Amino acid sequence: MSACSTGTRIRARYVAALAYWVSASVLLLAVAALAEEPRESPPLLTLDSAVQLAVANNRSVQIARLEIDKTRWSIESAKTKRLPAFHTYAFGSALLTPFSYTFDQGVFGNINGTPIPNQTTKIENGQSFNVYLVAQAAQPLSQLYKINLGIHLQKLDYLYSSESYRAKRQSVVNEVKQTYYQMLQTQSGLEATAASIKQYEELDRVVTQYVSLQTALKSESMEVKARLAQEQYNMIKLRNNLAIQKEQLNDLMGRDLETDFRLEEVPGITATESDLKLAQQTALTQRPEIRQAEINVEKADYDRRLAKADYIPDVGVALHYISPFNIAVVPQNITAAGIELSWEPFDWGRRKDNINQKKIVVEQSTYQLKEVRAKVLRDVNARFRKLEESRALLQVAMAKRDAVQEKLREVTDKFHQESVLFRDVLQQQAAVANANHEYEQGLLDFWNAKAEFEKALGED
After folding, report:
1. How far is it, in rounded angstroms, from Cα 275 to Cα 44?
2. What SS3 class is residue 111?
């Protein structure tokens, strides 16, 4: 028997195997489609919807938003210090030791020649229960300057909380986008792995049959089984990853972790971001970190001014009322109005040292602002270049995908012409699947880089 006739028979077997494999696959898919009960597909979750749900329901975002409300009430509380302050104090007690008053004869003068009192008089207070009531109303005057400085500090805290809220919201939006793209990538891997499992299952069945007919080697069957087992393991791993990512996305959106949904296909490439200078300027204007650093500079300056204001005496208008009950001789109602003054003339340099300390804090915060600006510019530059690289890499993946698809067409034509073996067709099909996966990964990497670039710009 000639080598040519042997090769022809082997090729004929492969042709028959391919035809049988294709027809069996079509039949199995048709039977599965008929047997499968129709199920209602989970609701579609678009990326925009996921972002909106996260902004509205994410717990970290809500905590940051409540911090804004808290600082707003702090401002209102600080404003009340401008108004008159009312204080009351009551002290109920019993004397531990009695005390007495002695008035000598005529100590209050004479009336019509009669001394008042007309004899030495002693008045005693026993150990009875008595009450002291003190009330005060005070309107600050010179303190208004320090109070207004404190209110401005509270307003700066409010602005800082607002920027913290923006930063947290941007961070959560970026996490949602990243998780969404990761799920799309995992889902794409699942689809490719499921297709590979179906191919290897059918190939395993065919090769097993040929081994029994002694027209194929046992090592070939073992190789197919090993590849099938690997793909089944990959399927389990990808399913677990998808479940974890789905729980993570539901958690970011503030929903129940078991809420089911399906994803929208990833969009194509957008227009090129070509103006780096414009991106830098946008980031310097919009990034919350820069605004927070600027607020810290202002806060440090107000702290310095507050420390300097400690030299100003506290002057205000006050009304005092004192009423001791059940105390003999002492007047029962004492009311006085006047000017209050409180001042510490000697502090041994404490206030000066405090001012010098605040000046250093102002200088530190100024350097911190410059450092944040430089860090933001570095971040924008890096994200811009990463986006440029991912866009170029995606173009490479597209070119490779087109090339291997054309190669598969050529190999398939040659197989029909009996110029190549069935194994060559399988290898090229695997190359196409790998190229498609690389393209999907490149596309998702591009959108990840796009999301990071948008975050670097400080866009809401």
Report:
1. 35
2. strand
Among 52, 441, 54, which Cα is nearest to 248's?
Answer: 54
Residue ranges with strand state E in 295-427:
314-325, 334-342
DSSP for 204-234? Answer: HHHHHHHHHTTSS-HHHHHHHHHHHHHHHHH
**pLDDT for position 271:** 62
3-class secondary structure, 46: coil
Question: 68 or 105, which is more confident?
Answer: 68
| pLDDT greater than 50 at residue 242 | yes
Cβ–Cβ under 8 Å, residues 50 and 176: yes
What is the token pair recorded at 250?
A: 């539901």
| E strand or H helix at 389 | helix 350-416
Encode burial over 386-408: b for 16+ CB neighbours within 10 A, e otherwise.
bbbebbebbeebbebbeebeeeb
- Look up tokens 């001789």; give the residue: 329
C-alpha–C-alpha distance, residues 133 and 338, integer Å: 19
Structure-model confidence comparison of residues 396 and 325, the more confident one: 396
Give the mean pLDDT of 183-212. 80
Tokens of 334: 């004492």
CB 446 within 8 A of CB 391: yes
CATH code that applies to domain 41-457: 1.20.1600.10
Minimal CA–CA distance to 79: which of 27, 28, 151, 10? 151
Q: Identify the pLDDT of residue 223.
A: 81
Query: For tokens 């002290």, what's the residue?
Result: 91
Contact (Cβ atoms closer than 8 angstroms) between residue 98 and residue 123: no
Name beta bridge partners: 110.
115
pLDDT digits (tens, 9 = 90+) for 391-448: 888 888 888 888 888 887 887 777 666 666 666 766 777 777 778 778 878 888 888 8
Q: What is the pTM of this model?
A: 0.75
Q: Which residue has the higher pLDDT, 357 or 216?
A: 357
What letter does residue 84 receive in the DSSP assignment? Answer: -
* 92 HSE (CA, 13 A, CB side): 1
Tokens standing for 239?
Answer: 């399913």
* Per-residue DSSP letter, 418: T
Residue 27 pLDDT more than 60? no
pLDDT exceeds cutoff 80 at 21: no
Domain ranges (residues) in the chain:
1-40, 41-457
Tokens of 288: 């919350």
Token digits of residue 340: 């209050």
